[in-house]
């Protein structure tokens, strides 16, 4: 990945949740290319990028997370990328659809942060990046659960940054808009066109563009950046 050229994570251990495909996979590949020891936490059966170790972990279950993290040793880099959608308008959304999205997108990230934080703060070094969304900043029709989970993750990012900053740990978020993935390419063309119409650049980013922002925040070049939300959305939400 050209965007990772010159970045060095040699000797550092990283966890990427949801790293089996899409943005998470691109992030994991970039970390591997930079020399990190990369561990991907994903549901059973997921295939990770070459050079990364796969772990079947349910991030919604605190015991599963604690056991997996505890078996690795010190972790210096964490990317909370795991996320799901269950789109439906508020009046039609079921309790399960609400809980499932909150549990994965928000509670899952909390479980991961809580599990790695003691090691990071004890060592005085750590980088945490959470994948949020512009829809967590602006809201989105039919995505009350998703927008709420991502908005909550923004608040969790800023709170963790305050709690861990004096202990050498930075915590930031990257907020994509629509990204050109296999999933979005399968959407109806009018939905992609709507995102294009919103964008100031007139084109949409790919997974490597989002991964580059995450990798920057994980690098030593971002040592004095914390508590921030970096939008990678081609100007969809300004």
Automatic annotation (TrEMBL):
Q: Which GO terms describe its biological process?
A: fatty acid elongation
Please give the superkingdom of this protein's source. Answer: Bacteria
Q: Tell me the leader sequence span.
A: none
* Keyword Hydrolase among record annotations: no
Matching SUPFAM superfamilies: NAD(P)-binding Rossmann-fold domains
Checking Pfam families in the record gives: adh_short_C2
Q: What InterPro entries does this protein's entry cite? A: KR_dom, NAD(P)-bd_dom_sf, Sc_DH/Rdtase_CS, SDR_fam
User: Which keywords does the record carry?
Assistant: Oxidoreductase
Give one GO molecular function term: oxidoreductase activity, acting on the CH-OH group of donors, NAD or NADP as acceptor
User: Has UniProt tagged this entry with the keyword Oxidoreductase?
Assistant: yes
Q: Which residues form the Ketoreductase domain?
A: 12-177
Recorded family membership: Belongs to the short-chain dehydrogenases/reductases (SDR) family.
This protein is called: Acetoacetyl-CoA reductase/3-oxoacyl-[acyl-carrier protein] reductase
Species annotation: Rhodovulum euryhalinum
